[in-house]
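task queued by scheduler; priority normal; single chain, no ligands, no partner chains; default sampling; output format set to C-alpha cells
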Amino acid sequence: MKYYLIAGERSGDLHAANLMRALKLEDPNAEFRFWGGEYMQEVAGQKPVRHYQDLSFMGFLEVAQNLGTIRRALKQCKADILANRPDVVILVDYAGFNMRIASFAKEEGIKTFYYISPKIWAWNTGRVHKINKVVDKMFVTLPFEKDFYKRFGYEVDYVGNPVNDAIAAFTPNPDFRKDNNLGDKQIIAVLPGSRKQEVEHMLHFMVSIIPPYLNDYLFVIAATPNLPAKYYQSFRRHDCIRIVTDQTYDLLSNARAALVTSGTATLETALFNIPQVVCYKTSEVSYLISKAVIKIKWISLVNLIANRKVVTELIQSDFNPSNLMKELDKVLFDGPFRDTQLDAYKEIKQAIGEAGAGAKAAKLMVNYLKG
C-alpha cells in the first residue's frame, strides 16, 4: 500500500520514522512519500517532498507573519497528494497544517489517519467535531486523550506513547563524556528546543545563571543538527558551558538535572529520571493570545499526564534568571523537592505504559486499511 505521511517538526519526524519502520514489518510492500526530515528519510531511503524546517513556525504571531509561505506549502502538498493518490494520508501532530490536509483528503476520498492527536483539549475543544468528520481513525498517545474524545462520542485508539519507543531503541554511548571532552563534572542538561525561534527566546536565559558555586558543574546544551553549529557557539559565554549535537539522550543519561523547553522533551527527561525545570517563552503577542484561549492548568506533558504539579513551569515573565536559579537549586541538590519529583516520574511511567506505540499503531492501521 501507498502511505503519505506529514510531520512538521523534529519530534514528529522521529516518531513518524518509527511508525514507518513498523508499517514496513506489517506491510512488506509499503511505499512511502512524506513531508518530514532526516529520520524519515533514513527509513524511506529518499528525501522528503519538503523538509519540516521550511515550515517550523511557533506562536500565533509567527504563523501570521508567514501565512504566504504556509499557503504555498498547502497548495504544493495538496497537488502532490493528488498526483500520487496514496491509500492513506497519515498526519503526525502539527495541527494547523495537518487539519487542512485532512479536510482536503476527505473531500478527495482519500483515507486519513491521525497519529499523535492535535492538542485540541488544551485550547479549542470544539475542533473535536471537525476531527470526527475528516479523520477516519485517530491514534492517541496520551492516556487522558481517549477519555477526552469519548466525551464527544468519538472512539479513538490509545497506542501508548512513541517517546517510549524512541527511548527503548536507544543504546547509550559509554564514551559520551570522553568523545565530547566533558570530564568528570556533574552535568546540567540544557534543552532549548529545536526551532531557531524558540532557541532564541530560551537559551540566553538558560545559560545566564552560572554563579560561582555552579562552577563545579557543566551546563551542556543539546544542539540539533538542523541549526548551524556556529549559531550555538554564540551562547558559549563561559567555560562551564559546553555543546553537544544530536546526542540528547546520551546527555540526559549523564545529567544530574535539566532545564527544558516545554514540549516532548519534558516527557523524555522524566522517562530518563532526570529532575527538571520546565521553561517557556514566546513573543508577547503570541503569549497574550495563548493565555486568552488555552484552557489547561499546565503546559508540560509531565504535569498534564500526572494531572497535578510535578515539575515547576516558568512561563513568559516568570522565566527569568532569578526564578530559574531558585528552581534549579531545588532539583539539583538532594532534598524533598527532588525526591518528590522522582517519585512522581514512576507514576507517569506507569500511566503511559510499555514501549510499542509505533508497532501497535502500524498493526491497527494496516488492519483498518485491509478491512
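post-processing summary
- The CA atoms of residues 120 and 300 lie 15 Å apart.
- The first strand starts at residue 2 and ends at 7.
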